[in-house]
DNA sequence: ACGCGCCCTG
DNA sequence: CAGGGCGCGT
């Protein structure tokens, strides 16, 4: 896995570098361009760079996006309610929400926000909404006209105001859920509000509460410092922008240094509380009430989250102390070596501690969230720390079980904590810090992935998420005790909830991040690559996965790939290095949701070895929703159900008729062979490997899914219409290349009439010819240079005959079997091409970067008619027989 | 803005 | 051979 990671990283780096260098467009200042690139990368790719903050940040960003979406969708509703121009109002609301989420945390500063409706809020909003990549907090401070949230541009960008990210992130989920509340009646709102307030009041007495305003800066600085030092290693050129970016992002609230925490309820809190109440009283009528209530709720939620955060941090610190006590003596030496890796490890420990200990206290919040969740589709509630913690806890337990160091009982949270400590101690004593670190890494990975998963799921299917949320919460605690086999821990809870199953697919497979799942209502999502992106913006969130990857890689001591392109959305992780792995298979292999019985699990789980419960969810990945119609496979072609193992041997599939693309995708997915995908269960691969694979799957789905439904390919009909390209098609294309180097798409359609054309197929064919050309021209250039080197002085000396090396090379490539008689015309063209290259090189034109273009222009005119025979689906037989 | 083609990479 | 990025032409 390290190898893979490193390779990926390298490629990513190179790509990035290339991109950076290649960007000639003048987009303002280079810094801005960089920043945007980073942003986009962060959104769409891994942002391993700042893993520390990723957990929360990612979620935050995504949430913000989602919030916007929701708001947009709700426009109609809001309009009806509000007499004012809907857009303005909504944007205002949105801003307020966002401002509150981000701004209220800044303690006293926010005191004026509520009553005044505040310029501050708006300003902050403007900041975040404008999605300008700027690092100076001052921008946000300057009050200005409210900027309507630019949905398109901002969808991919982070919106956190630089000054408030700490608590901002956690609060987001709640705000989302609260949004749903809009649709509830006032009564509901009030009731809820009252409940929440009660809770908050209770919480407010917590000694851990503190005003964030003062701390944030300090914390951020600290975090930044650590981040910078950590990532310096992988800065590779874009360090500046990335660092800056990170700064603005801030570190994750969860992981942030606990050093400055503490203190009782701030005066600001109380003040704000009062303010809220006043406002409530004032706003008894009209939509303003709605708005205010929502705001209030958000604030409260935020506060809760903040409290939780504080708690977590404190716990983290405690845990850390314990940790150090136990291990420092042993690991000191290692730490002495102290490089980035070491520091990373330390942080990991912190994180881990955070997670495990946080879980201890998450109950109250969970309860609240659950309650709230029922009212609206607060899938978002899933996002809340409580859930996260819960899952983390479960993971921790799981890990303990895996290592056989955890006792069966883990009922009480204290118990749990103790167990964790015990485990640590034992490990420290026996295996040493290394093992512990490994365990922690795994745990962390799992937790992160789960969180991501949860977020995604929540976004993708809100309503279901509620149920899922509940199920998950309840299930996790109980699972470990029920059986040593953790695999059954999470799934069972879902079983009773039919509605959950659809999205649980994603949800459960932490690795499966794709939102495109069938369940998701995103209408446009399967359109084009572009839309793919949009999709992500809408629902999914690449970053979480990224963060996951980053974390995992980092934990493993490997640099994180910066350029993990779309791996995220997708999905299928087959095996997991982090222990999450194999689920991908399961998920992919499992058929939809029918409430599955635990009985089904045993075989699967057994092969899974150890993995977190969530990973074991045998839910099919969203991708599965797109049944790859395998004409021969009778429609169940691709996603093999869990039972596929027991089914007729996969080999029965007619691979020759399998579409090429499908095969390739499958290969990427299944680690190779469609027929052997069941072997995946036994494979152990690094998580990093899965990203790309999953990606390919998503690609298939998203790109091909939209094309005409493949369903109309009659599997049983004698008709040769295929939805994909077969190896024979490839061969045919190669032969066609002898006639035409630049076939038009129409031509391709004519000559591949036995293929059901869609964008996928078309582009694939075009790509084929592009690749053919590439090879062709490379050969030409090579031989031209060779001729020049050999002293050929005149082009006339150059000739391409069937016995020439050049021709042999070409023939070997396009007509390997040599069972096709290459037309003379091709020889002529080849000769012309060769000479063109020769002349150009001799003339020194090759100094020009685009010197080949002229040649291409010439060659593209030399295409000749492709014999009619090629139009026949059976042309190969006919041609080759000749 | 979109599609195409080249280039580079894996 | 496929992905992805980029530039160019429309």
From TrEMBL:
Polar residues biased stretches: 106-119, 250-259, 280-292, 554-565
Domain Prospero: 722-880
Comp. bias (Low complexity): 153-164, 474-489
GO terms for MF: DNA-binding transcription factor activity, RNA polymerase II-specific; RNA polymerase II cis-regulatory region sequence-specific DNA binding
Location in the cell: Nucleus
UniProt main location, coarse: nucleus
Pfam families per record: HPD
Basic and acidic residues: bias regions: 217-235, 342-380
Residue ranges of the region described as Disordered: 101-177, 202-296, 328-384, 407-430, 466-502, 554-605, 630-656, 671-695
GO biological process: anatomical structure formation involved in morphogenesis; central nervous system development; embryonic morphogenesis; hepatocyte differentiation; lens fiber cell morphogenesis; lymph vessel development; pancreas development; retina morphogenesis in camera-type eye
Compositional bias annotation for Acidic residues: 329-341
Residue spans of biased composition, Pro residues class: 143-152
Name this polypeptide is given: Prospero domain-containing protein
Originating organism: Mola mola (Ocean sunfish)
């Amino acid at each position: 896995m390290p190898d893979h990671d490193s390779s990926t990283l390298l490629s990513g780096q190179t790509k990035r570098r290339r991109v950076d260098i290649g960007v000639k467009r003048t987009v303002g200042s280079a810094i801005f361009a960089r920043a945007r690139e980073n942003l986009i990368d962060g959104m769409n790719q891994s942002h391993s760079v700042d893993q520390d903050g990723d957990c929360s940040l990612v979620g935050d960003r995504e949430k913000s996006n989602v919030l916007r979406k929701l708001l947009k969708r709700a426009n109609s509703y809001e309009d009806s309610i509000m007499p004012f121009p809907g857009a303005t109002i909504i944007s205002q609301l949105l801003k307020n929400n966002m401002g509150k989420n981000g701004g209220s945390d800044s303690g006293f500063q926010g005191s004026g926000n509520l009553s005044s409706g505040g310029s501050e809020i708006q300003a902050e909003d403007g900041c975040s909404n404008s999605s300008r990549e700027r690092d100076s907090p001052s921008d946000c401070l300057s009050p200005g006209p409210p900027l309507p949230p630019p949905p398109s541009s901002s969808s991919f960008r982070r919106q956190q105001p630089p000054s408030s990210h700490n608590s901002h992130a956690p609060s987001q989920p709640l705000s989302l859920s609260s949004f749903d509340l809009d649709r509830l009646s006032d009564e509901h709102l009030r009731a809820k509000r009252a409940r929440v307030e009660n809770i908050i009041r209770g919480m407010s007495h917590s000694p851990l509460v503190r005003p964030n305003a003062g701390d944030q800066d300090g914390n951020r600085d600290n975090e930044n410092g650590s981040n910078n030092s950590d990532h310096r290693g992988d800065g590779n050129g874009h360090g500046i922008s990335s660092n800056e970016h990170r700064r603005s992002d801030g570190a994750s609230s969860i992981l942030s240094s606990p050093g400055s925490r503490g203190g009782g309820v701030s005066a600001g809190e109380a003040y704000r509380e009062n303010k809220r109440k006043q406002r409530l009283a004032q706003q008894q009528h009209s939509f303003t009430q709605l708005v205010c209530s929502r705001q209030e709720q958000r604030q409260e939620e935020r506060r809760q989250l903040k409290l939780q955060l504080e708690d977590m941090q404190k716990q983290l610190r405690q845990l850390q102390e314990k940790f150090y006590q136990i291990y420092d003596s042993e690991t000191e030496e290692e730490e002495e070596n102290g490089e980035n890796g070491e520091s990373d490890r330390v942080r990991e420990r912190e994180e881990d501690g955070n997670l495990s200990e946080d879980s201890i206290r998450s109950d109250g919040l969970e309860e609240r969230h659950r309650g709230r969740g029922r009212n609206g589709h607060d899938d978002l509630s899933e996002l809340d720390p409580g859930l996260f913690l819960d899952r983390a806890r479960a993971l921790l337990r799981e890990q303990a079980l895996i290592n056989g160091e955890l006792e069966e009982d883990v009922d009480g949270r204290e118990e749990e904590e103790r167990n964790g400590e015990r485990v640590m101690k034992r490990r420290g004593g026996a295996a040493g810090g290394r093992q512990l670190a490994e365990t922690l890494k795994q745990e962390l990975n799992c937790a992160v992935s789960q969180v991501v998963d949860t977020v995604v799921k929540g976004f993708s299917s809100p309503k279901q998420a509620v149920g899922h949320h509940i199920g998950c919460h309840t299930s996790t605690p109980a699972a470990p005790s029920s059986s040593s086999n953790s695999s059954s821990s999470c799934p069972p809870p879902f079983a009773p909830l039919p509605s959950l199953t659809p999205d649980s697919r994603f949800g459960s497979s932490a690795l499966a991040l794709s939102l495109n799942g069938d369940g998701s209502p995103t209408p446009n999502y399967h359109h084009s690559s572009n839309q793919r992106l949009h999709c992500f913006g809408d629902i999914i969130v690449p970053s979480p996965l990224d963060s996951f990857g980053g974390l995992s890689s980092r934990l493993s001591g490997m640099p994180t790939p910066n350029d993990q392109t779309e791996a995220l959305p997708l999905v299928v992780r087959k095996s997991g290095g982090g222990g999450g792995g194999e689920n991908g298979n399961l998920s992919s292999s499992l058929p939809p949701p029918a409430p599955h019985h635990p009985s089904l699990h045993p075989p699967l789980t057994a092969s899974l070895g150890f993995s977190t419960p969530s990973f074991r969810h045998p839910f099919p990945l969203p991708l599965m929703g797109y049944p790859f119609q395998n004409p021969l496979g009778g429609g169940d072609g691709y996603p093999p159900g869990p039972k596929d193992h027991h089914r007729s041997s996969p080999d029965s599939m007619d691979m020759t008729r399998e579409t090429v693309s499908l095969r390739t995708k499958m290969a990427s997915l299944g680690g190779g062979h469609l027929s052997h995908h069941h072997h995946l269960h036994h494979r152990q691969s690094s998580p990093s490997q899965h990203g790309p694979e999953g990606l390919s799957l998503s690609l298939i789905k998203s790109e091909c899914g939209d094309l005409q439904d493949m369903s109309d390919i009659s599997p049983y009909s004698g008709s040769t219409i295929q939805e994909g390209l077969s190896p024979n098609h490839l061969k045919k294309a190669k032969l066609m290349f002898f006639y035409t180097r630049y076939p038009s798409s129409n031509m391709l359609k004519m000559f591949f009439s036995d293929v059901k054309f869609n964008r996928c197929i078309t582009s694939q064919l075009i790509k084929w010819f592009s690749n053919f050309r590439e090879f062709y021209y490379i050969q030409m250039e090579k031989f031209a240079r060779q001729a020049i080197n050999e002293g050929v002085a005149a082009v006339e000396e150059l000739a391409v005959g069937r016995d020439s090396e050049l021709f042999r090379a070409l023939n070997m490539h396009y007509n390997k079997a040599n069972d096709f008689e290459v037309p003379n015309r091709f020889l002529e063209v080849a000769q012309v091409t060769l000479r063109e290259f020769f002349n150009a090189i001799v003339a020194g034109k090759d100094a020009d970067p685009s010197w080949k273009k002229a040649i291409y222009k010439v060659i593209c005119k030399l295409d000749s008619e492709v014999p009619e025979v090629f139009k026949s689906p059976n042309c190969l037989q006919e041609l080759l027989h000749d």
